[in-house]
Amino acid sequence: MLSMSEVTVTRFRREGLLVRLSGLPSYSRSDVQAFIDNPWINTVQAALVLQVSHARVSQLAAEDKIPVHHTPSGQRMYRLAQLEVVARARRERRSRSSSASSTLASGHVGPDELPGSHGS
After folding, report:
1. What does each C-alpha distance from 93 to 39, 64, 84, 109, 110 come to in angstroms?
2. Distances (CA, A) of 77 to 28, 37, 43
3. What is the pLDDT of residues 88-98, one digit of tens each?
4. pTM of the model
5. Any bridge partners for residue 69, and if so which?
6. Beta-bridge partner residues of 41
7. 65 vs 105: CA distance, rounded Å
8. DSSP per residue over 12-68, as a string?
9. Where in the chain is the domain with CATH 1.10.1660?
10. Which letter does DSSP use for residue 117 in this model?
């Protein structure tokens, strides 16, 4: 089955990492491919994707700021694609923030163009 052994698929099903579509007796090839294309990752791997500490990942999950799945064994698992969206948004926010700061620092914005100023 698509480079995944039956034992691996069974383990993923048992831990709730491979979601069965209602009414289907077993996993289709496309279900397994979707799982491969958007894998579950652990907290340490999530920290690498988000460029934060693993403790911060756990904190974000506890605050419901990032989606998390708890396996029956208690391990936190995250969908890679979801975290990539969060990471991209964080990079874009930082980029906008730093470009605004550099514009102010370079003097390209006059004092009456600063946010909150009312002009002369």
Report:
1. 26, 20, 14, 20, 24
2. 23, 16, 7
3. 998 898 888 87
4. 0.57
5. 77
6. 78
7. 33
8. HHHTT-SPPPTT-SS--HHHHHHHHHS-EE-HHHHHHHHTS-HHHHHHHHHTTSS--
9. 39-94
10. -
| Phi, psi for 42 (deg, rounded to 5) | -90, 180
Output the CA angle 25-16-21, nearest 5 degrees: 35
For domain 39-94, give its CATH number from 1.10.1660, 1.20.144, 1.10.10, 2.60.120: 1.10.1660
Amino acid, res. 53: S
Q: Quote the pLDDT of residue 25.
A: 52
CA distance 85 to 20: 24
Q: In this predicted model, what pLDDT tens digit does every residue of 5-52 receive, in sequence order?
A: 777 777 777 777 766 555 555 667 777 777 777 788 999 999 999 999
Region of 74 on the Ramachandran plot (φ > 0 left; ψ -120 to 50 alpha; else beta): left
Q: In whole angstroms, what separates CA 87 from the centre of its chain? A: 6
How many other CB atoms sit within 10 Å of the CB of residue 16?
Answer: 14
